[in-house]
Design a protein that fits this description.
5-stranded mixed sheet, 5 strands, globular
C-alpha cells in the first residue's frame, strides 16, 4: 500500500510528449487530478499490478497516465500519458 504523503512530481519525456498531444480540456483535467493526488493521495487512481503497489494508473475523462510511486524518495513519476475514448 502507498503511504499517505505529499509527493513531488517528475515527468518522463515520453509522458510530456503524450501530455502535449492531449486536448486542452483533457490536459487540464489530468493535471488537476495529478496535482490533487500528489497533495492528498485522493483521486481516480488505481493499482496496475497486484504484485507491485507502486505502479498506478490515473484516469480522467479523455486521458490517463501511468505513474510510478517511489515512497523512499517521495517522488511520483509520470511515465506515460495516453488519450481515452
Amino acid at each position: 500500500m502507498i503511504p499517505v504523503m505529499t509527493w513531488k512530481i517528475r515527468w518522463d519525456r515520453a509522458a510530456l510528449y503524450g501530455f502535449y498531444r492531449l486536448s486542452m480540456s483533457a490536459a487540464e483535467r489530468l493535471d488537476r487530478s495529478l496535482l490533487r493526488f500528489a497533495a492528498t493521495n485522493r483521486g481516480p487512481v488505481e493499482r496496475v499490478s497486484p504484485y507491485d503497489p507502486r505502479r498506478l494508473v490515473l484516469v480522467v475523462s479523455g486521458a490517463g497516465a501511468y505513474l510510478f510511486a517511489d515512497p523512499a524518495s517521495g517522488v511520483l513519476v509520470v511515465t506515460r500519458v495516453f488519450r481515452r475514448g
